[in-house]
Automatic annotation (TrEMBL):
Keywords: Membrane, Transmembrane, Transmembrane helix
Name of the protein in its database record: DUF6090 family protein
Membrane-spanning segments: 20-41
Pfam families, alphabetized: DUF6090 (PF19578)
């Protein structure tokens, strides 16, 4: 800068005003070029940071989506195995010699509870809450948002139907009490009215209603989970193409 000031002062002192203007214009152009270079470097650096952040999100999304895909496979297998067992046991109702005790044994052996539906949405929540969702490619972004809606609807519907099943289970528990209680009453002849056999018909009806509700609930859940698997696989393929190896 001292050199530049010295050159400008020398030109003015020598009366070379035209040369001074040319020099000044050249200096201005150099400054503008320097500013443009600095802006370009800054923009490049910001883009590099965004790309790195985007790649981090892609890897996090892949981790979440692959875990969800594995989870849906597990849940579908669980639900379909139960549903098949339930249908197989319906054949016992055609047996003319079937007894209440046998029906009870069949129904009580079927699992009443269902695994909860939970999905890995932490990365998607982070994208939405931070505003970084704009970093994601629009096509991929829309697919992720649609997947989140499907997951929320699946959980909501399953929880709703599961609540209906739980109410029936609660009613059944009032009829049968706890298994430990029935064991304690074996030698209590004076407490016959509390023994489960006296309410066997009501208990079987309650258990049958419970399993029927669970069966229908899981059929709907399996349909949604299979649709979800297709969406998960498509999104994973898209992200894999965008991830830098």
């Amino acid at each position: 800068m001292k050199l530049f000031r010295k050159i400008r002062r020398g030109l003015l002192l020598k009366g070379k005003f035209g040369n001074y203007l040319k020099y000044a214009m050249g200096e201005i152009i150099l400054v503008v070029i320097g500013i443009l270079i600095a802006l370009s470097i800054n923009n490049w650096n910001e883009q590099r940071k965004e790309n790195n952040k985007r790649q981090d999100y892609y890897h996090q999304l892949l981790d979440d989506l692959n875990r969800d895909l594995k989870f849906t496979n597990s849940i579908i297998n669980e639900f379909e195995n139960y549903n098949q067992n339930y249908l197989n046991n319906l054949e016992n109702y055609a047996d003319k010699n079937v007894t209440l005790d046998k029906l009870y044994d069949i129904l009580i052996k079927l699992k009443i509870t269902s695994s909860a539906l939970t999905f890995n949405s932490s990365t998607m929540e982070s994208l939405l809450n931070s505003g970084d969702i704009g970093l994601i490619d629009p096509v991929l972004r829309n697919k992720l948002i649609d997947l989140k809606r499907l997951q929320e609807l699946t959980i909501k519907r399953f929880d709703f139907t599961n609540e209906g099943k739980n109410q029936i289970v609660q009613n059944a528990s009032l009829i049968m009490g706890s298994p430990q209680m029935q064991e304690k009453l074996k030698e209590q002849s004076q407490l016959q009215s509390l023994k489960m056999k006296n309410n066997m018909s009501k208990l079987i009806l309650a258990l049958e209603a419970t399993h029927r509700w669970k069966y229908l609930s899981q059929i709907e859940a399996v349909d949604r989970l299979k649709l979800m698997q297709t969406e998960l696989s498509d999104i994973i393929k898209i992200i894999n193409k965008k991830v830098k190896k």
